[in-house]
Amino acid sequence: MSKKKKEKKKSDPVVALLDLIIVVMIFVMIPVGYNFFFYLSRANTFSSFTQDASRMSFDLTRNDYASLIQGRYMNEFNGINDAVSYHALAEYTEAVSEYKVYYSKGYTDKADKQKKIMDNSRKKMGNLEIFADKVDVMFDIE
Amino acid sequence: MKCKYCGYNIGLEDKYCPHCGKLNDQAAQHIADMEHYEADYEQTKETVITKSTKFNGRTGRIAVIALLLMLMAVALNITHKYSDIETREKIKKEKTEKAVEKNRRNINATLKEMEEHREYLAMSYFVTNHRLRGDDNYDEYMRVFTAAISYKSIYEDILNIVDGYEGYEDDGKEQWCNEIAIYITDWNSYVSGEFWDDSPTSPMHSGTHGEFLADCRKDTQDMVQVYFKLTDEEAEAMWTMEQEALSAKLYEKCRELYPEGNADE
Q1: How many domains does chain B have?
Q2: Nearest chain B CA: its distance from A87 CA (Å)
Q3: What is the pLDDT of residues B190-199, one digit of tens each?
Q4: B70 touching A, CB under 8 A?
Q5: How far does A12 lie from chain B, in Å, by closest CA?
């Protein structure tokens, strides 16, 4: 009985070598797989100029309102409308900046149109309204 | 068969006659043969099992290694493809071109609408998003695109001054003023000048496009005038000023109107 067991345990050296190769390859595959998924996700991220809410939030922390406005346009052109409050703030900022020009130049109709956009976007921006107040101060709008 | 001693009917497997009890010689030989064959069969069976198990073990592992190698080759190939910026750009460009080709009618309609409503910012981002500046189908729009993009660039620089954004390289207000001066002084060459080498009556800067270009120039002038508090004369004169002089003038106004740290106060 024990002899039989010993005979059974006697393994094929070629199989052992192949097992070793498989183990080594699995370890090699870990960094290769990591790089693969990393670059694949980057490829999709870089496929357009769109910005998610976290990116737009980052723009705000840097006072980069120009990027916020660009992000809103690019998102809308690519059918991405998740960051509603950030889009509203971007729309508000653009409207304020144009309102200031039209108001200063005496283009009343155009200024009124921008004022309406400002009022509407304020309703959609939720907690970000505090930034709208900041925009008013920046542009010296009453 | 019959027993050779008593003549009783016996079978090939009967080692002894069930009637007289004598030894059946033929059966003994038969049984010996059968045992031999059985031993041979068992031996052959064991050999076949051992060899096939060994074969299966190796083949299976070789198949796994081949599969892993294939996966590795595919992963390395795709990683190489996407880690290279130029290749990534090329893929992106091809994807965009296909999308534009597919949606040409909608894109043309959107462009017309943007041009009609003087949506400079929207048009500028739209052109960038769809890479229309390098598309031969929009040669007629090249001055319009350049005007919209110049407006957008000046607008962004003004916004950076107003909100106090310093860029990724701490550019600051002097840099933004300088960029505005560059776009304004370049306007005469790239938007309304001879850069595009077209005739004065070409559709690039006459008709609808011509009206758009005139309005875009006026709106740019108004924007710069308001944000830098220029007089009407100063605003009109900015188009003919040297770049350095204009940059210095704008920066002087900027320091007065937007002192450092103003945005965070």
Answers
A1: 1
A2: 14
A3: 887 777 777 7
A4: no
A5: 7
Looking at the complex, report in whole angstroms how far the Cα of residue A93 sits from the nearest Cα belonging to chain B. Answer: 10
Q: What is the dihedral of CA A39, A40, A45, A47, to 10 degrees?
A: 110
Is B165 at the interface with chain A, CB within 8 A?
yes
pTM of the model: 0.73
Per-residue confidence (pLDDT) for residue A100, from 0 to 100: 97
At residue B23, the 3 state secondary structure works out as strand
B2 DSSP β-pair partners: B9
Closest Cα partner for B236 from B248, B220, B254? B220
Six-digit token string for B117: 């409503």
* Residue extents of the structural domains in chain A: 12-45, 53-138
Q: What is the pLDDT of residues A82-112, one digit of tens each?
A: 899 999 999 999 999 999 999 999 999 999 9
The parent domain of residue B124 ranges over 91-264
Domain membership flag for residue B153: yes
Contact flag B75-A36 (C-beta cutoff 8 Å): yes
Most confident region among A98-102, B53-57, B59-63, B185-189 by mean pLDDT: A98-102
Compute the distance between CA of residue A38 and CA of residue A120 in angstroms, rounded to an integer.
40
Q: Is residue B54 part of a domain?
A: no
Residue B10 belongs to a domain = no
Q: Are the C-beta atoms of residues B158 and B167 closer than 8 Å to each other?
A: no
What are the φ and ψ backbone dihedral angles of B9, each rounded to 5 degrees? -70, 120
User: In terms of residues, how long is chain B?
Assistant: 265
CB A40, CB B77: distance < 8 Å: no
Average pLDDT score over chain A: 88
B234 sits in which H/E element: helix B232-237
Q: Which residue of chain B comes nearest to A30, CA vs CA?
A: B72
How many Å apart are CA A85 and CA B259, to the nearest integer? 30
Residue B66 lies in a domain: no
* CA atoms of B53 and B62, how far apart (whole Å): 14
